[in-house]
Specification:
The chain has about 210 residues and is α+β, with helices and mostly antiparallel strands. It has four helices and eleven strands. The chain has an eight-stranded antiparallel beta barrel. It is found in: Secreted.
């Protein structure tokens, strides 16, 4: 029953994106938890200097009230960046907010089993930035899931120069000569390491209305 439900949602994903709408069918939070592998990503506009060379698995944990905590490590320009982000649930299925409601994150089921597309909208340096990421339960390449991801990127007008970072563990990702680690806690509850404080991969936008306010 659940498989059929996910398939029905997935088949309507691209059409929903083209119509600027998102699936309105609920999904047990439990299905989103655990380890996910970042297989592809893109943005519009392209963010200079922010293409990861390798990434660790994305870990999603449940918090009180239905919120999620996302943890991932990127290797960018020889520097490891540990990112922890709290996603606040909304009254819309698959929809979360970050940075005090100023960024919207949609977790959209793919028609391919054990794959999701993460789509977020926000503002960077005074301009709107939109990003999409393809994640799956295993690190293996899945041509069908990647093709669907490209269709979504095309439907949303995103950059079709898809980034496919190398998969690695935390130890391998940060075992870079002379590399340093920066721990980023956009939710404001963490600490930074020896690197000078820097902005997150996508800093909090100046103004982005929560879902349903427009």
């Amino acid at each position: 029953m659940m498989r059929a439900l996910l398939l029905a949602i997935g088949l309507g994903l691209v059409a929903a994106l083209q119509a600027q709408e998102f699936p309105a069918v609920g999904q047990p939070l439990q299905d989103l938890l655990g380890r996910w592998y970042l297989k592809a990503m893109t943005s519009d506009p392209e963010i200079p200097g922010k293409k990861p060379e390798s990434v660790t698995p994305l870990i999603l944990k449940a918090l009180e009230g239905g919120d999620l905590e996302a943890q991932i490590t990127f290797l960018i320009d020889g520097q490891c960046q540990d990112v922890t982000l709290v996603l606040k649930k909304t009254n819309q299925p698959f929809t979360f907010t970050a940075y005090d409601g100023k960024r919207v994150v949609y977790i959209l089921p793919s028609k391919v089993k054990d794959h999701y597309i993460l789509y977020c909208e926000g503002e960077l340096d005074g301009q709107e930035v939109r990003m999409a990421k393809l994640v799956g339960r295993d690190p293996e390449n899945n041509p069908e899931a990647l093709e669907e991801f490209k269709e979504v990127a095309r439907a949303k007008g995103l950059n079709l120069d898809i980034v496919r970072p190398q998969q690695s563990g935390r130890k391998d990702t940060c075992a870079c000569p002379g590399g340093t680690t920066r721990t980023l806690h956009p939710a404001g509850r963490g600490r930074s390491s020896s690197l000078r404080p820097g902005r997150p991969l996508l800093p909090p936008p100046a103004s982005f209305p929560p879902p349903g306010s427009t």
